[in-house]
Design the sequence.
């Protein structure tokens, strides 16, 4: 009679202990790590506190340009940014929104899961199906909003496409909900996304098609979201005529955004 050996239960990982072990040796604010169990995780440690006068100045500029939903959201840095990200990750998890799962938290940092290798921006820049990926980004943001939630920095570089094609979101060190109503937070999500992708769509000759897709998408949005978006774009509409490289990347990014909305009318 041959007895089968008893099956071993997988060892539970003490994520708090792993976080305490990793933090003293981490040299960057955020870094990727492989735990002894083979799991890939990310650790964000407490960074420098950011002087609030910088955000006061940015807010002053934004108000005078009437940028509305494009106004900067303060990120205090330090332990406050750590606490903000932890709270945002918990809130998104409670609504089943795909984002890193918080594994451990301490005064010195956070540990959270890895949700994918490539950003949506990577696919928009490099994939032949870049317009399909771009449209998936719009749909993913809309899904977040239907849950009554919002993102923080919904730039395409902060949107992750997993190996199975699911779209998730990262980077929650600031919380727009502390400074503006829900509708403006959500309109800001769209503006961040469109701002970060318009120049690439323009580069690949897809701005006309993207404008038609956005026009259809925007038609399904409530007026409370559409109005702040249109109000933020109106002051920069003239920039759509700027094309020359000497204007610099930041100016041309806004010019592409203005061109997208100009063609979407």
Sequence:
């Amino acid at each position: 009679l041959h007895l089968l050996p008893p099956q071993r239960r997988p060892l539970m990982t003490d994520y708090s202990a792993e976080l305490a072990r990793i933090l003293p040796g981490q040299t960057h604010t955020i870094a990727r790590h492989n735990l002894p169990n083979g799991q890939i995780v990310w650790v964000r440690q407490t960074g420098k506190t950011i002087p609030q006068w910088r955000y006061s100045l940015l807010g002053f500029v934004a108000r005078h340009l009437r940028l509305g939903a494009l106004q900067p959201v303060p990120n205090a840095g330090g332990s406050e940014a750590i606490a903000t990200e932890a709270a945002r990750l918990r809130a998104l998890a409670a609504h089943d929104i795909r984002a890193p799962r918080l594994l451990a938290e301490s005064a010195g940092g956070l540990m959270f899961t890895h949700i994918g290798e490539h950003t949506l921006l990577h696919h928009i820049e490099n994939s032949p199906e870049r317009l399909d990926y771009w449209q998936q980004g719009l749909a993913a943001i809309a899904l977040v909003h239907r849950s009554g939630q919002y993102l923080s920095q919904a730039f395409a570089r902060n949107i992750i496409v997993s190996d199975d094609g699911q779209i998730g979101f990262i980077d929650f060190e600031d919380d727009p909900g502390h400074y503006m109503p829900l509708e403006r937070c959500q309109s800001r999500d769209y503006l961040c996304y469109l701002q970060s992708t318009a120049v690439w769509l323009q580069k690949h000759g897809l701005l006309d098609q993207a404008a038609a897709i956005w026009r259809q998408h925007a038609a399904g949005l409530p007026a409370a979201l559409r109005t702040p978006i249109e109000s933020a774009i109106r002051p920069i509409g003239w920039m759509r005529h700027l094309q020359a490289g000497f204007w610099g990347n930041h100016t041309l990014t806004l010019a592409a955004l203005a061109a997208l909305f100009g063609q979407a009318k």
